[in-house]
Amino acid sequence: MLDMLQYDFMRIALVSAILIGVTAPAVGTFIVQRRLSLLGDGVGHIALTGIGLALLTGTSPLLGALVVCVLGAVAIEVLRARSRSGGDVALAVLFYGGLAGGVLLTNREGGGASLQAYLFGSITSVTARDLYVVAGLAVVVLGIVLVFGRELFLLCQDEEVARTAGLPVRFLSVLIAATAAVTVVIAMRAIGLLLVSALMVVPVAAAQQVTRGFRGTMLVAMGVGVLSAVTGLAGSFQYDLPPGPSIVLLALAIFLAAVVGGSVVRRRRTVPAPVPDEARAGATAEAEVRGG
Amino acid sequence: MSSAPPLQMTGGRVRFDGREALSGVDLRVGAGEFLAVLGANGSGKSTLVRALLGLVPLSGGRTEIYGVPPARFRDWKRVGYVPQRLPAGGGVPATVREIVASGRVARRSRWRPASSADRAAVDAALRAVGLADRARDSAHLLSGGQQRRVLIARALAGEPDVLVMDEPTAGVDAASQAALAAILRELAGRGRTVVLVAHELGPLEPLIDRCVVMEHGRVAHEGAPPPPAWSRAAQAEDPHHHGPREGARSDEIGMRAG
Ligand SMILES: Nc1ncnc2c1ncn2[C@@H]1O[C@H](COP(=O)(O)OP(=O)(O)OP(=O)(O)O)[C@@H](O)[C@H]1O
Ligand SMILES: [Mg+2]
């Protein structure tokens, strides 16, 4: 674990893994609460078009993806609010549009290899300059969560009640979508666009197995995010595996452990403190039945 | 401005897919008034209160909150709303306290942490609905009636001047209804305005100043609170045969207000 810190690129990778581990689940908590778990995927597909455009025009792929992602997320939110079918179709439209656009543009550029890097991630190719951008974006995302968290919480609970509390509902909806887009861009270099939203959703799913509250879920999810990002990175270095999938599989493993652990914890909690003799007798009887 | 009534609708119309859910409602809710909205399922009660708060757009007429159309109204900390539907429960759990505390959002600055006044209001709201001991539990694991009490507490935590409640007592047991009646009596005593949608008035009945009975998107009857028998009859599909008690005609609108 420590010898990987000898390398500059691994130190950079480690810092960016920590940043991703913290930010993706923080935003993901709101996304899951709003039942928009696939938003990250939609934005991820749109990002491809941004990268394609950037490669074509010779600008920074990070910047291209950022601009196109934020625009796409805002478009998803507007379509979701306007259309009857809800976010579902809106997401699908942008999914396919973004993917097709990205493949088309990168193909013209002959950038199939770099497309690969963005689809599946290559954390070790993150440069120091990328890291500054990613760190800056992470600060922005966490700042938004910190400042607007309470309002976003009420918005995600009940949009109508949020309106009667005088909250700028439309602005907040766009804000959460745009923040999710920024998070996708933060994570895309490391995790890859196809797996980005796993790190927004899976840690939250794991956390809510063992928590009772929103805040608790968010904090535990951030812990799960950092844990899986750092150990996933270390493991991929150790065993020469691709980091993105390693990180995501670790998060999934934690999720499975939490499902099992959570149900045990809940069963403990609901068992009445004094165990009557009958119950014990019943348990013995059951054991006997199983034994026979 | 200060003399403007908390809620006032003139000729309010609401359309859903070409069908009128509200067809020309005139309603004035005076300061300090306790108004009950009765009527059969689908008669437009929820649509009426949601339109009063600007949650559904009017296709005709106008409505004002403290003299200002909802779109331009800014003083939302004066308004509390208890929706009829329980939230579907998003993917993430929230504790009872977190949900109740979110009712303070209109009173708190974005930049300021919770003050002791915020915490005191949340504690008081939790005690008022008898859920102080469940404050740290996940709201979605409570019973339906308990969840409704969480929503009531969320509205109470905001310490609103006008409290709009859409069937807050549906599925709530007798003891909790009596507790709610006690809270509302205290609020009414402090001059707060209450709009209550209900099928069964139950222990809230003595608090009510005026009743509005909705029927096919119109105010069919308006007047003094009906005897308990009427409030049960109000659920019937056809309330024509059970008129409210005498002197309760709609031309008395607003006479009792203020
Ligand atoms: N969002 C909506 N879209 C379409 N139609 C609606 C919508 N909300 C209400 N309606 C229609 O408007 C009419 C009045 O509905 P409303 O919810 O106001 O009734 P209600 O009096 O509150 O009934 P209940 O006692 O069941 O709560 C109904 O016919 C309903 O189908
Ligand atoms: Mg209703």
UniProtKB/TrEMBL annotation, chain A:
A GO cellular component annotation in the UniProt record: ATP-binding cassette (ABC) transporter complex
InterPro entries reported for this sequence: ABC_BtuC-like, ABC_TroCD
Any Pfam family matching the protein: ABC-3
Subcellular location(s) per record: Cell membrane; Membrane
Domain of life: Bacteria
Keywords: Membrane, Transmembrane, Transmembrane helix, Transport
Keyword flag Transport: yes
Transmembrane segments: 12-31, 62-79, 86-105, 131-149, 161-180, 186-207, 219-239, 245-265
Major subcellular site: membrane
One record GO biological process: transmembrane transport
Topological category with respect to the lipid bilayer: Multi-pass membrane protein
Family that this chain belongs to: Belongs to the ABC-3 integral membrane protein family.
Name of the protein this chain belongs to: ABC transporter
Lineage, uppermost ranks: Bacteria, Bacillati, Actinomycetota, Actinomycetes, Streptosporangiales
From TrEMBL, chain B:
Domain of life, source organism: Bacteria
InterPro entries in UniProt: AAA+_ATPase (IPR003593), ABC_transporter-like_ATP-bd (IPR003439), ABC_transporter-like_CS (IPR017871), Metal_Ion_Import_ABC (IPR050153), P-loop_NTPase (IPR027417)
Domain ABC transporter: 7-241
Record's keyword annotation contains ATP-binding: yes
Claim: Lipid metabolism is one of the keywords in the record: no
Gene Ontology molecular functions: ATP binding; ATP hydrolysis activity
Gene3D superfamilies per the UniProt record, alphabetical: P-loop containing nucleotide triphosphate hydrolases (3.40.50.300)
Basic and acidic residues bias spans: 235-258
Full protein name: ABC transporter
Region (Disordered): 222-258
Assigned keywords, A-Z: ATP-binding, Nucleotide-binding, Transport
The species this protein was found in: Actinomadura rubrobrunea
